[in-house]
Amino acid sequence: MPNIMYRFFIISLCLCVANSTSTGRIKYLPGFQGPLPFYLETGYVGVDVNEDVQLFYYFIHSESNPKDDPLMLWLTGGPGCSSISGLLFEIGPIEFEAVAYNGSLPSLISRSRSWTKMTNIIFLDIPVGTGFSYARTAHASCSNNILYSEHAYEFIRKWLESHMEFISNPFYIGGDSYSGNPIPIITQIISNGNEIGIKPYINIKGYVLGNPLTFPEEDNYKIRFANGMGLISDELYKSLFHSCQGEYRSDYINPDNVECLQNLALYEKCIDGIQQPQVLEPYCGDTESPIKLPRQMLSKERRLLSAFYCRFDETRLAYYWANDVGVREALRIRKESIGTWIRCNYDLNFTTIVDDVRPYHLNLSNKDYRSLVYSGDHDMVIPHQSTQAWIKDLGYIVIDQWRSWKVHGQIAGYTETYSNRMTYATVKGGGHTAPEYKPEECFVMFKRWIHGQPL
Q: How far apart are the C-alpha atoms of 382 and 237, rounded to whole Å?
């Protein structure tokens, strides 16, 4: 593996874990009626030199058997998207009530298909500058995907030091979208740390990836996806393939290749107005932020859009909730952390150093870790064809051939399992990311997998 993977060990051995965490249990949340029906803890853990990076997290006990159930660290994509996305919109035990916004604090209700029914989950705001995580110095605000991975490793070590009751639980790392890049790196770092005896020993068993970013060529599969979905004609697809020679990324196209550029212009025209996170849903524009809309306007906008469902109407509620003073006090958010909370901070000072993590998957396959990789099959952001391509590149033998998997007797997707203990699954009708669009199917999928059952 790259030498950069190992430079963290010298730093790690010198770090002091004492007094590095600040935590607290929360029994009530503004917007939720009555006491929370689950254990919620929030807190900050300081990482990096002098703990100048302060990472914020939400921790929820398994609602079954927290003492013995697996512990999972969940990372949202972006990079820079708050873990509130995973907590409130994907796999957590609460969600916003789906009603028109009326200017008051959005209401929260219980989610019956939460992955916390069978797993302890830490939802982490990472990298620095994401969600409520913050830097105490300008230098500490700079990050990259290797530093992100080292920070995540330091976080889980320090978190376990202050939660020793979970140190023997089976440990998994999960996440979606961009987190498909750092998760294999983090898993490798944890494995390396265990092998050389860094304490505490982390009982890692595997990882879970949804609609994961994995290698640079993934964008090339969008055109194949568009053709398969009937968004472009067979003729245009064939012309694109031959004129561009299978390479459609703008930075790699010869500017003198006029035919390729003309075909790409036709392709862009065809997909203009397509909602790429889920191609069957109505196009709702390029932004979800309500900042440009006065509070009193959102309910009116929803009425104007009542002819179709716009998912952004729900994600906007997070802005009003997370920026409420009472909510921040309840969550114990430090006043010096951030100003206005935003769901996805795309203005991070962040770079991607390693952009192809297939070698990490290959190396991890030799360590007997389990892995679940799944794709919403209507996601055009990271098409399922690209995920299947890099899995095939690993070269492992298929031990459970491509077949359907079902929920309530209905096909929920298709799955294949490989000799490296990797299970791949599509989620029929799922988008980017799948649990947000198909919560019941993804709940059943994860429950079967985490219990060691075939999908």
A: 18
276 occurs within a structural domain = no
Let me know whether 237 and 169 are in one domain: no
Q: Is residue 160 part of a domain?
A: yes
Residue 391 lies in a domain: yes
| Judgement on whether residues 24 and 154 belong to the same structural domain of the protein | yes
Instruction: Say if residues 295 and 286 touch (Cβ distance below 8 Å).
Output: no
* Cα–Cα distance list, 178 to 212, 348, 369 (Å): 6, 14, 21
Q: Do 164 and 26 have their domain in common? A: yes
Do residues 87 and 123 lie in contact, with contact meaning Cβ atoms separated by under 8 Å?
yes
Q: What is the DSSP letter of 140?
A: G
Which CATH number covers residue 379?
3.40.50.1820
Any idea which residues carry the catalytic annotation?
177, 379, 432
- CA separation for the pair 227, 238 (Å, rounded): 10
The token duo for 26 is 């929360």
283: which DSSP letter?
P
**Rg, the chain, Cα only:** 22
Same domain, 243 and 126: no
Residue pair 160/200 in contact by the 8 Å Cβ criterion: yes
pTM for the structure as a whole? 0.91
Both tokens assigned to 330 = 């309840």
**pLDDT tens over the chain, length 455 residues:** 544 444 444 344 434 343 444 568 999 999 999 999 999 999 999 999 899 999 999 999 999 999 999 999 999 999 999 999 999 999 999 999 988 778 899 999 999 999 999 999 999 999 999 999 999 999 999 999 999 999 999 999 999 999 999 999 999 999 999 999 999 999 999 999 999 999 999 999 999 999 999 999 998 999 999 999 999 999 999 999 999 999 998 888 999 999 999 999 999 999 999 999 999 998 887 655 544 433 333 444 443 344 456 777 778 899 999 999 999 999 999 988 878 999 999 999 999 999 999 999 999 999 999 999 999 999 999 999 999 999 999 999 999 999 999 999 999 999 999 999 999 999 999 999 999 999 999 999 999 999 999 99
Domain that holds residue 413: 3-216+354-450
Do 154 and 16 fall into the same domain? yes
Burial of residue 30 (CB within 10 Å: 0-12, 13-18, 19+) is middle
